[in-house]
Amino acid sequence: MNVRDFKALSRDVLFIVAGGTCLGVGLKKSGFTHKIVIAIPIAQACSIAMARPIIKLSNPIVLGSGLLEIKQILKPGIWIKVDSIIIILIVGMFYLPLIRI
User: Fold this and answer.
1) CA 12 to CA 31: how far, in whole Å?
2) At what angle do helices 33-47 and 11-30 cross, to 10 degrees?
3) Where do runs of H (alpha helix) occur along the chain?
4) Contact in structure between 46 and 67 (CB atoms under 8 Å)
5) Per the count of CB atoms within 10 A, which of 18, 40, 53, 70 is most buried?
């Protein structure tokens, strides 16, 4: 990345990256990182826990347009949820022993 690329970078992106970096450094220095590492798989599992078609704001808009029906959204959504749960369980079996839990 050169100076021209940096100047072309959106200020919003710059603040998000810098803020995330500062937050990461602060968490690491405070010792809170270990608790965050445990919370990440839990948060991921919670985010896939509901297999409903009205979870995101865009879904009701698409359904309201009449272009898709609920079953067209729900069918692939359920498979994505099942796959995600399996992946979290498999990763958890190898990940949690590494952090000694």
Assistant:
1) 29
2) 120
3) 3-8, 11-30, 33-47, 58-65, 70-98
4) no
5) 53
